[in-house]
Design a protein that fits this description.
The complex is a heterodimer of chains A (224) and B (308). The longest helix of chain A has 13 residues, at 39-51. Chain A is of the alpha/beta class and 224 residues long. In chain A, helix 4 (68-76) packs across helix 6. Helix content of chain A is 32%, strand content 16%. Chain A is built from ten helices and eight strands. Chain A has helices spanning 9-15, 30-33, 39-51, 68-76, 79-84, 94-103, 146-149, 176-186, 209-212, 215-218; strands spanning 3-6, 21-27, 55-62, 87-91, 107-110, 112-115, 162-163, 166-167. Chain B is an alpha/beta fold and 308 residues long. In chain B, 42% of the residues lie in helices and 14% in strands. Chain B has an eight-stranded parallel beta barrel, surrounded by six helices. In chain B, helix 5 (124-135) links the parallel strand 4 (99-103) and strand 5. In chain B, helix 5 packs parallel to helix 6, helix 8 runs antiparallel to helix 9 (236-254) and helix 9 packs antiparallel against helix 10. The two termini of chain B are 15 Å apart. The chains are: A alpha/beta (224), B alpha/beta (308). The interface between A and B is medium-sized, with 33 and 36 residues.
Chain lengths: 224, 308
């Protein structure tokens, strides 16, 4: 999932300084899970905007606004309300906001900030985190991802900043490499750590032409 | 001339360090280095230490080289990707810098620009590998170089850090990747250091190890390091000595007498540690952290009268 949090009202009002009539699109996916785009939140925000002289021309909800094809079909049912608006306020992650922006010929405003969970987009389970680096190292690291579990995303072993088993950068989390070492030790496989230097291949984080040719990508209207 | 001859000589090696300024006034930093002339085998120049923006290491190294001193370029992976790191290594060699200490580097969020982008494209192990590759005449993409450096490469380890075994495995990887010598984080316990060195040798690491000495300025500094610096542990007995020296300075000041007890005790402690470490390692690396003028007295007190 992609986590998001609501922007401060002042910031949203700044975006809307030159606009009076606003259409709101809220996502029922991750951002609703984060309680920033639930029906209650939309109602609360609509009230606050009304108090500041804004007129809400209409509201729509979309399951997973990141799905652009679906967003287009939902927005199509609200054409009059959108036409009547000066701009569209979107409560979703950054992907959903961009879906809406690509679909309407109005200014689109983010009502949220997408924040990092260091996790897997779409589904995030507990500590099994993934940065979709395209070059999985979990075999060598005892099933604990060094890219996401280490603050520096180090892939060649522990650094000097492990302090009492905690990361000196983020004392609220355990040192990822300490966890990796302990796991491998319990498996009797610390030998896996003795290997030649590894380096990341950042090319692998860019979706290939092949992957961009899948039906998922085809559903997206690419404005660029 | 690089550190190679001194590493091979078998003599007890002494290095110290200076920190570049935050700003353009390099005079003070150069004066600090001047205090070490004739007393050490090499001078580390820290690279944006503690993730704080300042003049880079290579520039000061170049100035030291111009003055006939032997600089050790520190290089961290936090701020540059592999293209810039390799380029800067080549550039350093062109400027006459022959020693490089390869470190991963503190995280940005611990420094004075916590909003900045962390790079960590390479880390200490892969930077050593990259430097070694350059010395072999190839870059990381396997392109041939027109002229190759011949760096003397160093690595670091924190003997008192937790997960010592994991640290030692990483140290093995650093040596395999190309490290010719090792400087350690500050150590304050001879017994624990001896045990550590025993493990270093059991891990098959035979390159020279230089024990790290950070001059204690006060009991408060020692406690601060214990609480805030990963991999540093100052025993209570040393804190007590510094605390008593601090109290003696305070009463001397009240009585209008000459102080200097804290400095004296700090020098005494550092010299004792050096003497304790000497039979078990190949050298020491003294990190003065601003107390540069006290480094020569420390070396004198430890019986290390200038480089051989």
């Amino acid at each position: 999932m992609i986590a998001s949090e609501q922007k401060p009202l002042e910031e949203i009002l700044e975006y809307l300084a030159d606009e009076r009539r606003v259409f709101i699109l809220a996502c029922d996916g991750c951002s609703a899970g984060c309680k920033v785009s639930t029906a209650e939140e939309v109602a609360r925000l609509s009230d606050e905007l009304s108090e500041h002289g804004k007129e809400i021309t209409g509201c729509a909800r979309s399951d997973f606004a990141c799905n652009q094809a679906q967003v287009v079909s939902i927005l199509a049912r609200h054409l009059p309300e959108i036409s009547a608006a000066d701009g569209v306020l979107v409560l979703s992650c950054g992907v959903g906001i961009q879906s809406v922006a690509a679909a309407v010929e109005k200014r689109v405003h983010p009502g949220t900030n997408s924040v990092s969970l260091g996790g897997y987009a779409g589904l995030w389970r507990s500590e099994a985190r993934c940065a979709t680096c395209g070059d999985c190292l979990l075999d060598y690291t005892g099933g604990i991802c060094p890219i996401t579990a280490c603050s520096k995303s180090l892939i060649n072993g522990i650094c000097g900043g492990s302090d009492g088993g905690k990361c000196e950068v983020r004392p609220d989390i355990e040192c990822g490499w300490a966890r990796i070492y302990e796991r491998l030790e319990s498996l009797g496989r610390t030998d896996l750590l003795r290997r030649s230097p590894r380096m990341r291949d950042f090319k692998r984080m860019i979706p290939t032409a092949e992957r961009r040719g899948t039906s998922l990508f085809a559903l997206e209207r690419e404005p660029y | 001339v690089s550190l190679f001859p001194v590493l091979e000589s078998g003599k007890f090696i002494v290095t110290s360090e200076v920190g570049p300024p935050k700003g353009t006034h390099v005079e003070h930093c150069l004066e600090d280095a001047e205090l070490l002339r004739g007393k050490v085998d090499g001078i580390n120049v820290t690279d944006l230490q503690a993730a704080a923006m300042r003049v880079g290491s290579a520039v000061i190294c170049h100035l030291l080289k111009d003055r006939g001193l032997e600089p050790i370029l520190q290089m961290v992976c936090r701020d540059r990707n592999r293209i810039a790191l390799q380029s800067d290594l080549l550039g350093a060699w062109v400027l006459g810098i022959e020693n490089v200490l390869c470190l991963t580097g503190d995280h940005n969020t611990l420094g004075d620009h916590p909003e900045s982008s962390p790079v960590f494209d390479l880390d200490s192990v892969s930077l050593l590998h990259a430097a070694k590759r350059l010395c072999e005449g190839r870059d990381l993409a396997d392109n041939e170089l027109e002229g190759a450096p011949n760096f003397c490469l160093g690595a670091v380890v924190a003997p008192a850090a937790d997960h010592q075994e994991a640290q030692l495995i990483k140290l093995e990887r650093k040596v395999e990747a190309g490290a010719h010598f090792i400087q350690t984080q500050a150590v304050y316990e001879v017994d624990r250091f001896v045990e550590f060195m025993d493990k270093v040798r059991k891990h098959g690491i035979t390159v020279p190890v230089l024990a790290g000495i950070v001059l204690l300025k006060s009991a408060g500094m020692a406690r601060y390091m214990n609480n805030n610096v990963a991999g540093v542990s100052v025993p209570d007995a040393l804190i007590k000595r510094m605390s008593e020296a601090g109290a003696a300075d305070k009463s001397a000041k009240e009585e209008g007498k000459k102080g200097g007890h804290a400095v004296g005790t700090s020098i005494e402690i550092a010299a004792e540690l050096i003497k304790g470490f000497q039979p078990h390692c190949q050298g020491v690396h003294v990190m003065p952290l601003g107390w540069d003028r006290h480094v020569p007295p420390v070396l004198d007190a430890a019986g290390l009268n200038g480089k051989s």
